[in-house]
Amino acid sequence: MHISGKILTGFVLLLGAVAIWLSSKTLGVRQGYMEQAQKNKQDFLQKEQQLADALSERDRKRTEFVRAIAGWERVYEGENVKAGIDPSGIVVIDGVGTSNGVKVGDVLYLFALGQEPGSSLYLGSLQVAEAAEGRVNGRPYTRIRPGEINATNQAFPARVRKLVPTRFQDELSSLDQRLLLLEQSLANAGQDTGFLKDLQDRTDLLIDDRMKEINGNPALENSRVPEVNKVGILASIVQEEELRNAALKQGDDALRRLLRTRQKTEEVLAENRDLAKTLPNASLQPVLPQASLEKKGDLR
Fold first, then answer.
1. Is residue 7 predicted with pLDDT exceeding 50?
2. For residue 163, what is the enclosing H or E element?
3. What digits encode the pLDDT tens for the residues 177-218?
């Protein structure tokens, strides 16, 4: 073969190898592109699902919010809605009245608006006692302890709601019961504290008298030492209880003996009556002496 043919054959073979290499590279690029496209598609589907979940959660929260707001049957707020508390404890609300559907006997829930927008402080509930077109007043509906509601010199911006959602009503009732139990516990603790204070005062007096006796007090000369100073206040109380119980038992025994004596007397009287009925009638006439009979004949 001529030399030019050999060169041409080598060149063709080289071009074929280059074409095969370029084809493989092209296929690799295409495969990478397809894999990236599949990954992008999966990411897109995942993002789309996350968006759908977020929208669903938003709709659910919005529904709960609407239900919560709808639970408050009526809300009264604005620049003209103000509340105040007079020294007698009566709550006066301006800007709410019969024109808003409020009537005597309704229970209103009062909030004081805060300085920051949307903030408020729950003050409590009140039952309407008097209702006019633009003003209502009433007394606290829940139990209020002294100091919880103070009189205000000027009216404050307020928000008034007419109906509390059920879950809040249950919580308020539970808190009210817990408050009642705590107040009862506090009252019992106060009574116990008073008893212990009285006992401490009595003990201090006894200790003072005893110290005077030990140190020598002329005012206690030739005076009988109280029994409580010898045995202690608690032991003295026990002894007094025992003496009282013994006196009660002695009185009860005396009453029982008196009852038995009365029953025995009634039995003896009944027996005597029965014996008297068995005697003959002649024996019932009194027997007079002979001298008495003679004198009786002389009188005739």
1. yes
2. none
3. 888 888 888 888 888 888 888 888 888 887 877 777 667 666
Pairing of strands 156-161, 91-94: unpaired
Reported residue count of the chain is 300
Q: pLDDT tens across 16-52, in order?
A: 777 777 777 776 767 777 777 788 888 888 888 889 8
Q: Is 29 left (phi over 0), alpha (psi -120 to 50) or beta?
A: alpha
pLDDT score of 283:
46
Q: Is 95 left (phi over 0), alpha (psi -120 to 50) or beta?
A: left
Q: Average pLDDT over the chain, rounded to whole? A: 76
Tell me how far apart the alpha carbons of residues 125 and 136 are, in angstroms, rounded to a whole number. 13
Tell me if 114 sits within 8 A of 120, measured CB to CB.
yes
In this structure, whether the domain defined by 73-164 belongs to CATH 2.40.30 is answered with yes
For the chain, give every domain's residue range.
Answer: 1-71, 73-164, 177-220, 226-276
DSSP readout, 86-123?
-TTS-EEEES-SGGGT--TT-EEEEEEE-SSTT-EEEE
Interhelix angle for 233-278 vs 166-215, to 10°?
Answer: 100
Helix (H, G, I), strand (E, B) or coil at 55: helix
Name the nearest CA neighbour of 120 among 72, 181, 87: 72
